[in-house]
Design goal:
Strand content: under 5%
Radius of gyration: 40 Å
Helix content: over 70%
Number of strands: 0
């Protein structure tokens, strides 16, 4: 081989070494970004789970509230009926 060929080979090896170094640095940055994104995904999943639990609690409370309103309406109706009966008795006397 000629000296020129060695110089070209050395230049290509140096470029390859620089490229490998650059790619390793990019890989580290990408790995760090990936780790940050994984942590954010976990946070979002935890928040979503908490929201689902709160939603279930609200649905249960809404159901209880509806049952209470129904019972209140039933009681109001019965009281009105009893008052009407008393009015009938009072008018009949």
């Amino acid at each position: 081989m000629h000296l020129e060929s060695f110089d070209q080979l050395e230049e290509r090896v140096n470029k390859a070494v620089k490229l490998v170094g650059k790619l390793r640095e990019e890989n580290k940055e990408l790995a760090a970004t990936n780790q940050e994104l994984q942590a954010k995904i976990q946070e979002f999943q935890n928040a979503y789970k908490k929201l689902q639990e709160e939603h279930q609690q609200l649905k249960q409370e809404e159901k209880k509230s509806k049952q209470f309103e129904d019972k209140q309406t039933e009681i109001t109706t019965k009281v009105q009926q009893m008052l009407q009966k008393l009015d009938i008795i009072d008018t009949g006397i």
